[in-house]
Amino acid sequence: MAKIGPSLMCADMGNLKDSVNRLDNGKVDFYHFDVMDGSFVPNFTMGPDMIKTLRPYSATPFDVHLMIQEPERYIDLFADAGADMISVHAEATIHLQRTLQSIRNRGLKAGVALNPSTPLNVLDYVWDTVDYVVLMTVNPGFAGQKFIPLTFDKIAQLKELITQKGLDIEIQVDGNISYDTIPKVLEKGADMLVCGTSSLFKKDKSLEQALVELHDFLNSLTGKSKINS
Ligand SMILES: O=C(CO)[C@H](O)[C@H](O)COP(=O)(O)O
Q1: Residue 81 C-alpha to ligand 1 middle, in angstroms?
Q2: Do the interacting molecules here have an ipTM over 0.90?
Q3: Domain 3-222 top-level CATH class
């Protein structure tokens, strides 16, 4: 069963604690925090204080996606804030292996995030230092964008590499993960779904309703229920 991770940049920023509480009641697998610096991506969102503030209210893993230049400067800051997993963009750090190792040295899961146009071969010499790969299926920076179709093949290619090598690495997909795209990203091999405005945070639906519908949809695709198992 694929894991559900609400993208909290899409939540009601004035009531984040309430959203996390309601999502926890409906069962989610991780929370996805998009951290942006206005340089690597043309936007600003969340920071370490927000993560630190929410940390005491949930035991669900906090997945921090650093969409920032030179993320190696801030690994300790986000680890101290309460991250359980941190992903860094291969495009944003010169010493990728060292940066991943520094995340693992803090006892956290280390992820590599790749923009849609970044080839998979940047992973060639870091396979043994990666716990998950974040495949961006939109260009990072904004919610509510359109899925980039060629990334479907990229998911399948990554899955094949991981299987061939016999590695225990999860594939996370991020960007326009919707009722239209979920069946295909799962078929291609995605394990973790970052759920934003396309599936969970809907103007015409309560969070509770949207989450129940998403669980039901995933169950209908896989034929088994994680909640009931
Ligand atoms: O990474 C992101 C933006 O860069 C967001 O997590 C994601 O795009 C949010 O989901 P949606 O596309 O469904 O609004």
Answers
A1: 22
A2: yes
A3: alpha beta
